Amino acid sequence: MTGAAPDTADVVACLRYAGGRWQEVADPYGPGLDRAAEAREGFTWLALRDPPADRLAEVRRRLGLPEAVDVAEAGADDPVTVEVGTVGRDPAGGLRTGELTVTVAPRLVLAVHRGADGPLGAVAHHLAHRRHGATVDRWTVVLDLVQHVVTGYPDALEAVAGEINALEELVFDDRPDDGVVNRIHRLKRDLVELRRAMVPAQRPLGALADGDEPPLPGRVRRRLRQLREEVVQAVEQLNGYDDLLNSIFQARLAQISVAQNDDMRKIASWAAIAAVQTIVAGIYGMNFSDMPELHWPYGYPAVLTLMAGSAALLYWRLRRAGWL
C-alpha cells in the first residue's frame, strides 16, 4: 500500500534549466528532485513559499545543503546563502514584510520565502518568458530575485513619505487631530519593520559584489554593486524619514504641552476667582456678633456687590493677561 503523495502547495516552482530550455520537474518532493539535482548539465531551481520547517529540513538534507553558509567565508564550490527582506503593502495600506532566503549551490538554487508579497511567482514567470538566447545561469535567478525585492523598496518608502506628509499637515493644522500621536506610533512601527527588512541585505550583497569567492561573472558583480547601492540609498532615506518623524513627534508633544499649560492657567484663574468668593463667604459665615456691616440694612447687598465686583475685576485682569 503506497502512502499519500506529499502536499506541494508550498512549491511555487521546481524547474531545471538545460540546453537553453526550462523543464518542469515533476514530483518535487520525490525522486524527481533528486534526479534533477544530480544532473550534470544545467541547474535546478526550487522555489518554496512558507514551507513547513520539517519539510524544508528534509529537502536540505536530501540536497546536501547546510543550514547557512556566510558569503564572506564561502569557497569557490561552497553553497552560499543570501538573505534579503521583502516589503509590500496590503489592500488596506498596511505594511507587509517577509524574508527571502536564497541558497546557491554548484547546480542548484533553493529559494525560500516567508511572509507576504514574495517575488517567487513573478520571477518564475519572467524567467519562463525570457527572450530566446539570453544568458541564464544560477546567478541570473539570484539577480532576478534580489532585483525584484530591492526595486520594491522605493514603493514602500514612497508610501511612508506620503504618510509623513499627511502627518505634517495634521500636526501643524489650526486644530490638530487628537489621533496624530497614535498614527505616529504606528508609522514608527512600520519604520522598524522596514529597517529590519532592508538593513540585513547590505552585507551579503556587498560580500558577493566585492569578494573574490565565489567567482562570479563581471555582469553579475556589476549588477550586485548597483543593487547594494540601491539598498544603501533606501536605508539612508529610511533613516531620514525616521529623523523627520521624530521631529514631527516632538512638535506634537510640544503642542500638547502648550495646550496643557493653557488649560492649567485657565483652571488656576477660575480657582482664584472662586477663592475670593469663598474667603468672603467664609468670613461672613462665622458666628461672631461683631461683624462689619452686620446690622446695616444694606450689608447683605453690599457684600454680594463686593463679591461680584472682585470676581469681575479678577476676570478682567486675568483675561487681559491671557490666562482666560
From TrEMBL:
It catalyses: Mg(2+)(in) = Mg(2+)(out). Belongs to the CorA metal ion transporter (MIT) (TC 1.A.35) family. The chain crosses the membrane at residues 267-286, 298-316. Keywords: Cell membrane, Ion transport, Magnesium, Membrane, Transmembrane, Transmembrane helix, Transport. The keyword Nucleotidyltransferase does not apply. It is found in: Cell membrane. The lineage of its organism: Bacteria, Bacillati, Actinomycetota, Actinomycetes, Micromonosporales. Pfam families: CorA. It is a multi-pass membrane protein. This is Magnesium transport protein CorA. The gene is corA. Its main location: membrane. One of its GO terms (cellular component) is plasma membrane. It comes from the Bacteria.
